[in-house]
Amino acid sequence: MWSNNNNDKNSPARGFWTPPASWRSQHSPAVAKMPMSERKERVSSPSCKRDIFHVIHKVPSGDSPYVRAKHVQLIDKDPSKAVSLFWAAINAGDRVDSALKDMAVVMKQLDRADEAIEAIKSFRHLCPYDSQESIDNVLVELYKRSGRIEEEIEMLQRKLKNIEEGIAFSGKKKKTARSQGRKIQITVEQERSRILGNLAWAYLQHCDYGLAEQYYRKGLSLEPDQNKQCNLAICLMHMNRIPEAKSLLQNVKASSGSKPMDDSYAKSFERACQILTELESHLIVKQTKQDEKVHQRSVASPTTGKFEGVC
């Protein structure tokens, strides 16, 4: 259970400060000027071994509430305890934005997405402005997990509007983002295509196949993407446009050539093919029943409308 501090929304985040890059560069030791003997000694020191441990396990160094929570999450792998420690970090004002996002991710893993949503809504005002976009990304995933599709669509529409108005990228053409723990450079077009794909998927789950098709086609107009093509094929199937869907899936398969299908879209292709097979089987059964009815009518008595031999 958490306390709601919405009455104090204008109060600054407590107890943490991140020095600017220029400050860090001025106060960081110059490794290149260090004598070789001293460098070897430092490598073999216990502190260096601890640093290597933190790099390998991707946990921050130190003994703050946030660091202890990350250690329990990633090293001890105790998600329930990690949630409690992330709460402690938030209450202590220790890296509130990171603690809030990490806690929400762990709650999602524990099927506590609704709790995580309420936590973010209650405490995001304590986080700096430049972390709000990444918090929105976490919130979208939580909406998706909890099945709150209308709220997910609303959030994605707002993100798309920010992209189109140049707010999300602050007027720049590229920005740094994280993907599977790695920092990558993404363009405005790539981010817009990603959001369009997420919107299309949300409308697909909402059974609004017409809008889903529109957003998938908009996303594909910005960059090719086999996942979007497979999901677009599913939209077309639900709208009884089977030949178009089959053609799309054939193009996806042809894009792999003789190589095994890429893992990034193999599951989407398999799911689309499964739905296609089920629909075609259903259509075959339906057509068979219709043919049987036509045959039965053809052998019925033309004068009485009754089957021959039946009183």
UniProtKB/TrEMBL annotation:
GO terms for cellular component: nucleus. Keywords: Coiled coil, Nucleus, Repeat, TPR repeat. It comes from the Eukaryota. Residues 1-10 have a biased composition (Polar residues). It is found in: Nucleus. Residues 1-39 are annotated as: Disordered. Pfam families: TPR_8 (PF13181). Residues 139-166 form a coiled coil. TPR repeats lie at residues 193-226. Belongs to the MS5 protein family. This is PROTEIN POLLENLESS 3-LIKE 2. It comes from Salix purpurea (Purple osier willow). The lineage of its organism: Eukaryota, Viridiplantae, Streptophyta, Embryophyta, Tracheophyta.
